[in-house]
Amino acid sequence: NWTMEEFIGKEIARIREICGPKGRVIGAVSGGVDSSVAAKLMHEAIGDRFHAIMVDNGVLRLNEAAQVHEMLTEKLGVNLTVVDASELFLSRLKDVEDPEQKRKIIGNTFINVFEEQAAKIEAAAEKEEELAPSGERKGKIEWLLQGTLYPDVIESISFKGPSATIKTHHNVGGLLKDMKLKLIEPLRELFKDEVRVLGRLLGIPAPLVQRHPFPGPGLAIRILGPVTRDQVKILQQADNIYIEEIRNAGLYNQISQAFAVLLPIKAVGVMGDKRTYEQVIALRAVQSEDFMTADWFVFPPEVLRRISSRITNEVAGINRVTYDISSKPPATVEWL
Ligand code: XMP
Q1: How high is the pLDDT of residue 161?
Q2: pTM across the whole model
Q3: Least packed by Cβ within 10 Å: which of 3, 106, 125, 147?
Q4: Which atom of ligand 1 is nearest to the CA of 212?
Q5: Is the pLDDT at 165 greater than 60, yes or no?
Q6: Ligand 1 pocket residue status of 169, Cβ below 6 Å
Q7: CA of 215 to the centre of ligand 1 (A)
Q8: Is the beta carbon of 167 within 6 A of some atom in ligand 1?
Q9: Ligand 1 pocket test: which of 334, 335, 336 has the largest number of ligand atoms within 8 Å of its C-beta?
Q10: What is the pLDDT of residue 57?
Q11: 290 DSSP assignment
């Protein structure tokens, strides 16, 4: 029996007590609901002693790094560094097709890039302190922010079912060990809908608070063949049109997750009086409570028609669009 306002006050006090007057915290942000809300809460509690890091892994959605940067720094005031590591990620992903291999490469590379950036922040902080008048040693980065929710806490304690290991979700165990950081998890008592309420109270704009989940490995698990810059670009454009039309139709909040998938096959089409031989986009949209099961979403036909015609007209390299009518199980939400 508590209100969210009380929760905010108590949590901010708790964070301040844990960190002390000088302690610094780092955390990764993705632009998703959980990490944004957690980052904003940390900023409210300790200001610029919270350092957010966003890693551009080259497989984000169209203009995503720039949008997240604008939202977090300009709108929410969070102390954020965006690291463009797309070259490194794409070079390590070269010629890789296996989904689990893609996940592992992205997870490991993320940790490498994050650690390197954290070390830079730490070095800059130390330098700042040397120049500080009081001469007191202070302000090491001691904490790592995690946007863990209550269901994740429960799952990691009690969930040992086979599906836990069906897909590898990347974790931060390595960071904690290598960097000797301690975890700070301000959302660990909350459910998703509570995080959204909290986000709104913290002044986070509605479109961000309502955002569909986006997987850590990003578009790499939505490109069914090898991941190249060209393939990423094609998928980004198609996905952007798809989501834009879903928003225009007022359907975004009725859908739990929607995204486009780029298939590694070519099909024949016709443009003017010429045959084309180009790739295929599959559209996915599901409704789900917890993503353990999911139903495919029934679109009004005219919305699908508009999406398909825009994608085939506007995205070079695509001449065919299909809609995925598979539920989970037996399919998964993602194609990889
Ligand atoms: P599946 O495809 O397993 O997806 O039915 C269920 C939910 O999990 C997301 N997902 C991931 N999220 N890293 C993530 O952070 C991953 O490797 C990953 N794989 C799947 C998926 O987007 C959906 O919301």
Answers
A1: 45
A2: 0.92
A3: 3
A4: 24
A5: no
A6: yes
A7: 5
A8: yes
A9: 334
A10: 98
A11: S
